[in-house]
């Protein structure tokens, strides 16, 4: 266990070092977020269109989904070719997938926070319970990262990985989106935390289940 944790820590540090050294990917994702929010502003606020709370909430999660998908879609591209076999001889597959999930969860959380701040600034902020909404936002970022990381690993083995990730990701993410929209709508309305208890517990359970499935299945994908 200690050896596994050490491998995970080293791999996460490697991911952060590479990202900080070449920040083009992160800058591109942030630019994508800003551009999408700005298009929403031009479409609604500048046209003096009143945005209903349900529309505001749904549009926000759609933006988050596509932004996080673009951020995670190519997370296994660095492991292609000779580097893949180099990692194969150094670390365990469990350490590799866990490090990818942890790093992508961290990256997705930053993207979600920045996106929420920009979206609230440009499109106003109708959220009454900001604490609950932030907690749901964190669960959503972690849920997206755990699910899409495994899917990205599967898609990386195919020739057309982007299309395959879209096909595999939609049925997995759709139930999660429905739970996130419902829980965040309760936060917007200022309802008690107990009203969102079922959704929050389900989201936490899904996150743990996906992580467990990733640990169990990725070694077979690793050897293929």
TrEMBL record:
The chain crosses the membrane at residues 26-44, 56-76, 97-119, 131-152, 164-181, 201-222. Keywords: Membrane, Transmembrane, Transmembrane helix. It is found in: Membrane. GO terms for molecular function: heme transmembrane transporter activity. One of its GO terms (cellular component) is membrane. One of its GO terms (biological process) is cytochrome complex assembly. It is a multi-pass membrane protein. Pfam families: CcmB. Its main location: membrane. InterPro entries: Cyt_c_biogenesis_CcmB. It comes from the Bacteria. Belongs to the CcmB/CycW/HelB family. This is Heme exporter protein B.
């Amino acid at each position: 266990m200690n050896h596994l944790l050490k491998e995970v820590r080293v791999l996460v540090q490697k991911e952060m070092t590479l990202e900080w050294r070449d920040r083009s990917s992160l800058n591109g994702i942030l630019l994508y977020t800003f551009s999408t929010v700005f298009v929403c502003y031009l479409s609604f606020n500048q046209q003096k269109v009143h945005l209903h709370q349900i529309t505001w909430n749904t549009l926000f999660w759609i933006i988050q989904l596509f932004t996080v998908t673009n951020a995670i879609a190519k997370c296994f591209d660095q492991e292609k070719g000779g580097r893949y076999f180099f990692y194969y001889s150094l670390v365990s597959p469990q350490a590799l997938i866990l490090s990818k999930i942890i790093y992508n969860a961290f990256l997705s959380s930053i993207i979600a926070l920045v996106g929420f701040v920009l979206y609230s600034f440009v499109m106003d902020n109708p959220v009454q319970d900001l604490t609950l909404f932030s907690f749901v936002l964190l669960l959503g970022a972690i849920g997206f990262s755990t699910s899409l990381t495994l899917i990205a690993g599967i898609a990386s083995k195919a020739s057309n990985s982007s299309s395959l990730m879209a096909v595999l990701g939609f049925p997995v993410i759709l139930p999660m989106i429905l739970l996130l929209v419902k829980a965040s709508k309760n936060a917007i309305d200022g309802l008690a935390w107990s009203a969102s208890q079922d959704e929050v517990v389900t989201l936490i359970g899904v996150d743990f289940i996906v992580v467990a499935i990733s640990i169990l299945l990725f070694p077979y994908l690793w050897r293929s």
